[in-house]
Design the sequence.
């Protein structure tokens, strides 16, 4: 067999469209995922995340478009695809009556893991997911955190090159989220992981790249830092100030012409308001701002802080932006 | 999935309980006076009682439960096809059904052991009865699987399969008496109804008459219901 110079990307999606009874769930989606990458898939409810994932696994047929996993087309070779993926659906369905080790054994046999290797492999994933002490417990009686880890253990069991997990951290407490996050991070480099989530800090910590989709279209994609810069402008500041706010923007413009007030609150009991400012300047201008505002007798300055926009802000801004331009066809930004 | 489920064992106990009850009642009857037929013939005449509740109990969970829990999705993303899933569920339920019936063979062994009466141990009707149960079971279980493929609610699936079975077994017994079918124009329908007389099949089998047409009836029914089940699973995937 000739060795390929560049292996095909782990996931390749081109112009994917899926319509259900006239409703377009996925609309002309295109993206590529390199091998070993961890990709976060973000989007509001009904954005088409789960549908896209189901199409990737070959569970649902697409209306049109091309999906290749490791160079294998999903539409024409579903059997080969099933050997390439580990899939954990939304809500992580598990049989209630089975024991953890029984379940993994059963799934291993289904996934055609050779019988000789299977028990070693089960030991490995039990270790990896920290499930050793519950291996003989019945799945229906396990707590949510354990069930979720059983689902992940099952997904990585056959060592597939591509792992697809639909909301793996849903409904977990912060401690369990941490464990699951470490678990996913430990797969980095070995397997390509595509996860969808609502919990944005999660995605930010774990994922190399984020794809934000809304209404079946990609509205933004890139690393969390790239997204911040692209969607929110360069820097944001938070200002707590009392005084004549009508002249504030003029004073700010003297400090930095691109500085604009994006929002402000009602004054609190002591007369202070909180302002949110953004600027295109990347370097810190906090010092100039403080000196300009504190030397001005019309204002009383209480606080100034540079804001670190979370992925949440990016997500909200990106999805809002896509709602605004819902009729114009959007193109993927990278 | 059947063997790890608690409800399977409850169903199995219930089955043996009821079969034991039927057998004991029958023995009581025999002890009070001589009968024309052997115990095996009478015993298998009650086959429809367990069929009506056992087949729905064993099959109703198979696909409906997988669909309700969502495990059908994980199942179909492993290297198995819809056909394999349906056939796997079918044969699991069928072999369990056979195994439970095989347990009732113990009743006859006990009878043989303690009655010391060869008249009670008539091997022909006994074997005929078990062959009938095995062959008719093919179709009954397929009907149960089909009902389970229709719904995501196992209670609904159970009721559907119970209704189908009742119509086929008991209903077909009464249909030939319907006045409408005496009409000359209804002759083909009448022929079909006569063909589907489950109790007639049982009586033939018990007398050692294994008619290829009857075997074909059950086999074709089995294939038909299994194909319908596979279609039903696939159609629901396309529209899920």
Sequence:
């Amino acid at each position: 067999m000739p060795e390929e110079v560049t292996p095909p990307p782990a996931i390749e999606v081109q112009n994917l469209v899926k319509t259900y009874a006239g409703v377009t769930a996925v609309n002309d989606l295109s993206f590529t995922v390199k091998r070993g990458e961890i990709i976060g898939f973000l989007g509001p409810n009904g954005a088409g995340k789960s549908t896209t994932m189901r199409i990737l696994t070959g569970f649902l047929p697409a209306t049109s478009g091309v999906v290749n996993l490791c160079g294998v087309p999903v539409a024409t070779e579903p059997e080969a695809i099933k050997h390439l993926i580990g899939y954990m659906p939304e809500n992580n369905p598990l049989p209630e009556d089975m024991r953890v080790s029984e379940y993994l054994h059963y799934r291993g046999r289904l996934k055609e893991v050779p019988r000789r290797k299977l028990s070693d492999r089960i030991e490995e994933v039990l270790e990896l997911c920290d499930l050793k002490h519950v291996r003989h417990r019945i799945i229906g009686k396990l707590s949510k955190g354990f069930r979720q880890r059983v689902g992940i253990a099952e997904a990585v069991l056959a060592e597939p090159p591509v792992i697809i997990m639909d909301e793996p951290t849903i409904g977990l407490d912060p401690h369990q989220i941490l464990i699951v996050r470490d678990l996913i991070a430990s797969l980095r480099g070995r397997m390509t992981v595509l996860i969808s989530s609502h919990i944005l800090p999660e995605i930010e910590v774990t994922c190399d790249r984020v794809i934000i989709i809304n209404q079946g279209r990609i509205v933004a994609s890139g690393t969390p830092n790239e997204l911040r810069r692209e969607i929110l402008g360069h820097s944001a500041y938070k200002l707590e100030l009392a005084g004549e706010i009508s002249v504030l923007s003029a004073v700010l413009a003297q400090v930095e012409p691109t500085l604009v007030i994006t929002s402000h609150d009602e004054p609190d009991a002591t007369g202070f308001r909180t302002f949110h400012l953004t600027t295109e300047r990347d370097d810190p201008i906090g010092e100039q701002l403080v000196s300009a505002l504190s030397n001005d007798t019309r204002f009383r300055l209480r606080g100034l802080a540079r804001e670190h926009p979370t992925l949440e802000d990016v997500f909200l801004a990106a999805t809002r932006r896509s709602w605004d331009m819902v009729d114009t066809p959007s193109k993927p930004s990278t | 999935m059947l063997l790890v489920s608690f409800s399977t064992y409850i169903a199995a106990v219930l089955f043996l309980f009821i079969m034991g009850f039927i057998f004991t009642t029958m023995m009581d009857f025999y002890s009070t006076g001589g009968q024309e037929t052997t115990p095996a013939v009478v015993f298998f005449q009650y086959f429809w009682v367990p069929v009506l509740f056992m087949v729905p109990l064993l099959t109703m969970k198979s696909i409906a439960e997988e669909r309700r829990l969502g495990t059908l999705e994980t199942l179909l993303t492993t290297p198995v096809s819809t056909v394999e899933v349906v056939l796997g569920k079918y044969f699991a339920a069928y072999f369990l059904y056979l195994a439970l019936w095989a347990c009732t063979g113990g009743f006859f062994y006990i009878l043989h052991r303690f009655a010391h009466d060869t008249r009670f141990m008539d091997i022909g009707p006994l074997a005929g009865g078990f062959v009938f149960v095995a062959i008719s079971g093919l179709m009954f279980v397929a009907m149960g699987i089909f009902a389970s493929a229709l719904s995501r609610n196992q209670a609904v699936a159970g009721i559907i399969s119970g209704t189908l079975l009742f119509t086929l077994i008991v209903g077909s017994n009464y249909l030939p008496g319907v006045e409408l079918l005496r009409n000359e124009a209804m002759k083909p329908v009448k022929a079909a109804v006569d063909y589907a007389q489950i109790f007639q099949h049982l009586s033939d089998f018990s007398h050692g008459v294994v008619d290829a047409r009857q075997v074909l009836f059950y086999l074709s029914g089995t294939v038909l219901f299994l194909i319908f089940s596979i279609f039903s699973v696939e159609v629901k995937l396309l529209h899920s």
Observations:
- Chain B touches chain A at residues 1, 4-6, 69-71, 73-81, 237-240 (CB under 8 Å).
- Chain B has a mean pLDDT of 85.
